[in-house]
Amino acid sequence: MTYPAPQRPRVLSIAGSDSGGGAGIQADIKTITALGGYAMTAITALTAQNTQGVQDILPVPPQFIRDQIRCVVDDLGVDAIKTGMLGGIVQTQAVAVEIARTRQNAPDLVVVVDPVMVAKGGAALLDEDALGCLRTTLLPLATLITPNLPEAEKLTGLTIHTVEDMKAAALWLHQHTGAAVLLKGGHLAGEILVDVLLDTAGTREFVGQRITTRHTHGTGCTLASALATTLAQGLALPDAVRQSCQYVHDAIAQAPGLGRGAGPLWHAHAWCPTIRS
Q1: What average pLDDT does range 231-249 have in this prediction?
Q2: Burial 12-36 (b: 16+ CB within 10 A, else e)
Q3: Which CATH number goes with the domain that contains 203?
Q4: Can you give the residue ranges of the Pyridoxamine kinase/Phosphomethylpyrimidine kinase domain (predicted)?
Q5: Cα(15)–Cα(69) distance, rounded to whole angstroms?
Q6: Is residue 5 part of a domain?
Q7: Residue 82: its H or E element
């Protein structure tokens, strides 16, 4: 599939660093670049991790997070912001303050919030006391929120077992934040994947085929970055979702097979397909 880039949007990723390169800042840079955007970063935490899990986390002081965001925005400008791992309440507050400041001068700014809470291997990436701050200060600033099912359950307090449950949770999030919601259904059982998109135009379902593989590390980061890039390029939300989901599907299908655990995707497939024996 071809991934056209009608313009080169400036996309700022605010997230944690993944030393294994499969998720976080590293996945975001690869995705934004592959889809024709210009990637910029503000790092919220350093992590020591690989495909087998997160070994250690070093949070970045909140003022330094704000400094990173501000110096990038004030010099290079920004068309879209994507947030991922934030860590603690002070980091979450710092990010919300700077996004609100940026929005004052750029009312059309695209903000995609991926409410990252737990790593693929089970490590906590958002402190419990930061959940309320995320819900009340950051999510209302978002253009689009991209939770998976466990994250949506924590944010809403609802139990999600079916697609109808997903629609109810998406509606709750939309009503409480004003943002569009893409609720990812990968945690539901079955070979068919259903993602639910809800915005002011109503509810849509995006149906795909599950790929049976262990190489799915960084799928959430990759999807959110793809959405930020394609939305900043001017695609309508349903088209951005469709193209971004296809990009992630192809990146999983062409995963390079690295590591002994949850392996990374192949983000460069748009111009450099991986060849596996």
Answers
A1: 97
A2: bbbbbbbebbbbbbbbbbbbbbbbb
A3: 3.40.1190.20
A4: 18-265
A5: 11
A6: no
A7: strand 80-83
* Per-residue pLDDT at 93 exceeds 90: yes
Number of structural domains, the chain?
1
Would you say residue 177 lies in a domain?
A: yes
Say what the pLDDT of residue 272 is: 60
**For 185-225, how does the pLDDT look when each residue is reduced to its tens digit (9 = 90+)?**
988 888 899 999 999 999 999 999 999 999 999 999 999 99
- Residues 47, 48, 49: CA angle, nearest 5 degrees: 100
Ramachandran angles phi, psi of 83, nearest 5°: -110, 145
**DSSP states of 38-55:** EEEEEEEEEEEEETTEEE
| Terminal CA-CA length for the chain | 22
Tell me which of 44, 184, 222, 245 is the catalytic residue.
184
- Identify whether 2 is a catalytic site residue: no
Catalytic residue flag (residue 216): yes
Three-class SS state of 261: coil
261 among known catalytic residues: no
* 219 included as an active-site residue: yes
In the residue annotation, 234 being an active-site residue is answered as no
pTM higher than 0.90 for the full model? Answer: yes
Residue 271 pLDDT greater than 90, yes or no: no
Strand order in the sheet with 144-145: 53-59, 38-50, 10-18, 80-83, 110-113, 144-145, 180-183, 192-199, 202-209
The count of residues in the chain is: 277
